């Protein structure tokens, strides 16, 4: 049994029609419910919920503060490589994008780490493209062992791996893995991923199951907003989360909401999501899941991030570079996407404090996995 | 005065350090609470950094630190974490928390008992966070814990003493102090816990996320004092029916 079995019970168009048919009455019921279901989630992400945005935001803030207090967790990505053997229509690292490729050496990684540490970070997110010949499980093992003395919390956003590979990385100190399905629309997925290992929809879909079986402490899901109807994709994400929470009950879960950003050779979003709609989605997730960790990256604007701090978001990146060597080694190498909020971590931390929240730099310890 | 292991406490209000808007607000709140035992999550502090912000704000002679193992999922992980805490924070006191379920943070009784037994042998003063399970409390007592910390309701829920029937059994049977931990949402919940005979309460969320944490800490401080005073003064029995002030047998007390 994996999520694939559950997923195949659904029909994309039926789900979509069901979301778009929700009424204001359904939204009110969802807001008042003691225990909320995926049907309530459909109502909260429906067009009908737009007029309930303020009460949704108020409830989202209340639930977030109850569970997470007035804290905001800080993390930063470290791009190890932009090599990639996939063709993806929306990504700067795509194989058909003719730019110079780079994978960091051990010395270069340590130079990057030095800068990241000087910014105050204790939680690092390792990011790569998908190049299984050069950036593979053995490489990740070396990197984790190399940087472990410098970070309490090590997360990864790389290609899907096998269960045994995840087990080995977890034993070395890997804390969490982010794996985005990009879209749950199977046919469109094929169009956006025409070549490379990533074109295998089901292998990617079952990655969270492999992570759960490996005993990962935390995993992050998400879809790339802009590829398909965001409401329907978000329903599938929520259904996936619900399945995972029930199956791998010892794992924590987080969500991100990457919206398509400009990049070298870029794809225009098929579906635009407004700021109001993103707030609606963040609040909807919080209202149905009080424990979910919600991240907001530097893809979003300063103004938007400043105000989302108190709406349901629980972790935030700052000072991010989306190119390998971007912090110290090779600042001009190819970016995966352009960032929008360019403020330094110190500026972001000050903004968080001004809003009455505490920036949290450390929330895990390697001693737990000795 | 409450005695746990080798320490005595005037205040029966123990507190936590999570969810505050800043370390300075946390410090002011904890001082207002009068708490002398404050639990701190090992995962939140950098024990190698003498300038760790949270630890700096907890340096007061009256505050004893109670490191906790929040984040571990097994007895084995808890033992590692405990040893790190003892070395880094120079205390053998430990709030043993093993909750593999990150959704409701409910404690794992099997791993907790295993870890408690091991850690007591290693010389730790163990205060285990557990479900309100009277049998588990006795088993933990047998392996040598210094106190038990049964929950009132799920952590952070502010739902109060949902487990009150079992708390009463635990309090009645326990030979070690009983600290009601988790779910206490209001000063009246804390007072109630003390009234039924709990030795202390541990409160975090209800104080940290209050509109005015400092004022709320003072309210809890007073509630705990009142609750204990009521317990010591021995509450009158509850009756399900009215008790006549002129009972049927009153005629026996006088003659016409």
From TrEMBL, chain A:
Q: Which PROSITE patterns match?
A: RADICAL_SAM
The segment(s) forming the Radical SAM core domain are 70-297
- UniProt KW Zinc-finger keyword: no
Q: Which SMART domains match?
A: BATS
Cofactor entry: [4Fe-4S] cluster
**Which keywords accompany this UniProt record?**
4Fe-4S, Iron, Iron-sulfur, Metal-binding, S-adenosyl-L-methionine
Entries under Gene3D superfamilies matching the protein: Aldolase class I (3.20.20.70)
Q: Which GO terms describe its molecular function?
A: 4 iron, 4 sulfur cluster binding; catalytic activity; iron ion binding
Q: Which InterPro entries match?
A: Aldolase_TIM, BATS_dom, rSAM, rSAM_sf, ThiH, ThiH/NoCL/HydG-like
- Domain of life of the organism encoding this protein: Bacteria
GO biological process annotations for this chain's record?
thiamine biosynthetic process
Please give the NCBIfam families that the UniProt record associates with this protein.
thiH
Which PANTHER family does the annotation name? 2-IMINOACETATE SYNTHASE
- The name under which this protein is listed is 2-iminoacetate synthase ThiH
Q: Which organism is it from?
A: Dyadobacter fanqingshengii
Automatic annotation (TrEMBL), chain B:
* Gene3D superfamilies the record matches: Aldolase class I
- Can you give the residue ranges of the Thiazole synthase ThiG domain? 3-247
Q: In which pathway does it act?
A: Cofactor biosynthesis; thiamine diphosphate biosynthesis
Record field: catalytic activity: [ThiS sulfur-carrier protein]-C-terminal-Gly-aminoethanethioate + 2-iminoacetate + 1-deoxy-D-xylulose 5-phosphate = [ThiS sulfur-carrier protein]-C-terminal Gly-Gly + 2-[(2R,5Z)-2-carboxy-4-methylthiazol-5(2H)-ylidene]ethyl phosphate + 2 H2O + H(+)
Q: Does the keyword Heme apply?
A: no
Cellular component per GO?
A: cytoplasm
Q: Which HAMAP family does the protein's record reference? A: ThiG
Q: Which family does it belong to?
A: Belongs to the ThiG family.
Role summary: Catalyzes the rearrangement of 1-deoxy-D-xylulose 5-phosphate (DXP) to produce the thiazole phosphate moiety of thiamine. Sulfur is provided by the thiocarboxylate moiety of the carrier protein ThiS. In vitro, sulfur can be provided by H(2)S.
Put simply, this protein is called Thiazole synthase
Organism source for this protein?
A: Dyadobacter fanqingshengii
């Amino acid at each position: 049994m994996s999520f694939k079995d559950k997923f195949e019970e659904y029909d994309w168009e039926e789900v979509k029609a069901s979301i778009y048919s929700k009424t204001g009455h359904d939204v009110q019921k969802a807001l008042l419910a003691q225990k909320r279901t995926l049907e309530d989630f459909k109502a909260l992400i429906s067009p009908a919920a737009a007029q309930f945005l303020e009460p949704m935001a108020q409830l989202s803030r209340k639930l977030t503060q109850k569970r997470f207090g007035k804290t905001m967790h800080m993390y930063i990505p470290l791009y190890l490589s932009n090599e990639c053997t996939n063709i993806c229509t929306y990504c700067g690292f795509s194989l058909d994008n003719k730019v110079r490729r780079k994978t960091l050496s051990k010395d270069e990684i340590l130079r990057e780490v030095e800068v990241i540490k000087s910014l105050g970070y204790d939680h690092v997110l390792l990011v790569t493209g998908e190049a299984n010949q050069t950036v593979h499980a053995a490489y990740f093992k070396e990197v984790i062992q190399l940087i472990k003395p410098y970070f309490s919390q090590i997360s990864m956003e790389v290609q899907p791996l096998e269960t045994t590979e995840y087990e080995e990385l977890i034993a070395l100190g890997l804390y969490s893995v982010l794996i985005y399905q990009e879209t749950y629309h199977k046919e469109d997925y094929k169009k956006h991923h025409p070549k490379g290992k990533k074109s295998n929809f089901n292998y990617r879909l079952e990655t969270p199951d492999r992570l759960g079986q490996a005993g990962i402490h935390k995993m992050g899901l998400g879809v790339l907003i802009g590829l398909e109807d965001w409401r329907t994709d978000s329903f599938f994400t929520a259904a996936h989360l619900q399945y995972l929470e029930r199956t791998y009950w010892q794992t924590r879960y987080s969500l991100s909401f990457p919206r398509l950003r400009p990049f070298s050779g870029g794809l225009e979003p098929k579906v635009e999501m407004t700021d109001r709609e993103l707030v609606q989605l963040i609040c909807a997730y919080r209202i149905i899941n009080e424990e979910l960790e919600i991240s907001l990256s530097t893809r979003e604007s300063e103004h938007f991030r400043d105000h989302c701090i108190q709406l349901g978001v629980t972790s935030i990146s700052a000072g991010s570079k989306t190119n390998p060597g971007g912090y110290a080694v090779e600042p001009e190498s190819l970016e995966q996407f352009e960032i929008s909020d360019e403020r330094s971590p110190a500026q972001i931390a000050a903004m968080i404090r001004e809003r009455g929240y505490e920036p949290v730099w450390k929330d895990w310890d390697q001693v737990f996995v000795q | 005065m409450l005695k746990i292991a080798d320490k005595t406490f005037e205040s029966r209000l123990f507190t936590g350090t999570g969810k505050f808007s800043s370390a300075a607000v946390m410090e002011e709140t904890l001082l207002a609470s009068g708490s002398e035992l404050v639990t701190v999550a090992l995962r939140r502090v950098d024990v190698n950094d003498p300038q760790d912000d949270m630890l700096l704000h907890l340096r007061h002679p009256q505050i004893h630190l109670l490191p906790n193992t929040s984040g571990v999922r097994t007895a084995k992980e808890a033992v590692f974490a405990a040893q790190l805490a003892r070395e880094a924070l120079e205390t053998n006191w430990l709030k043993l928390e093993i909750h593999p379920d990150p959704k409701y943070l409910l404690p794992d009784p099997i791993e907790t008992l295993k870890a408690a037994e091991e850690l007591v042998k290693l010389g730790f003063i163990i205060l285990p966070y557990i479900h309100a399970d009277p049998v588990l409390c006795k088993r933990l007592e047998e392996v040598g814990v210094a106190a038990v910390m049964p929950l009132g309701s799920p952590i952070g829920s502010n739902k109060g003493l949902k487990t009150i029937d079992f708390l009463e059994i635990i309090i009645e049977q326990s030979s070690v102090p009983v600290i009601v931990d988790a779910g206490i949402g209001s000063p009246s919940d804390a007072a109630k816990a003390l009234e039924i005979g709990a030795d202390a309460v541990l409160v975090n969320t209800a104080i940290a996320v209050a509109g005015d944490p400092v004022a709320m800490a003072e309210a809890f401080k007073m509630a705990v004092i009142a609750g204990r005073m009521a317990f010591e003064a021995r509450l009158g029995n509850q009756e399900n029916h009215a008790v006549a002030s002129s009972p049927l047998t009153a005629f026996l007390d006088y003659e016409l």
